[in-house]
Request: fold
Amino acid sequence: MITGLYCNVQTVNYDLGYSDHFAQLSSIMVDTPVINRKFTMKRQFSENAINEFLNYLQIEPWDHILAMDDVNDSFNTFMNTFLYYFNITFPLKILSLNKNNNKWITKGLLVSKSKLRLLRGLKRTEQLSNNSKNYIKTNPFIDIY
Reply:
């Protein structure tokens, strides 16, 4: 650890054959924090998921862990089982950090926008019937030309 940053240092020595001195090449890979992240990963702990997790732990047979002689093996087996049920009950979900600053865009406008995009795409691929094309041309609220 260098100045609070975690790093991975790889060093290679080279014998160039010119003298009794060696050349040294070091590669330092520094894990810097990402400043402008676009997503985050979170777990969601709902009441139903917590009950499901507790149910998994209750039906799991723990006798084989208690019967182990080595404490480290017993702990590792317990943690593997616990984390298995934890990860399937509370999976990590990717959440976008991009906030919608357009508060005036309602769900109705988003639905209308998606319908217009669909109609525009169908019109471009010539998959609309003549009746649909005439409806689009005559309706003043649908302007996809």
Remarks:
- Strands lie at 7-14, 23-30, 39-42, 93-96.
- The CA atoms of residues 65 and 74 lie 5 Å apart.
- The longest strand covers residues 7-14.
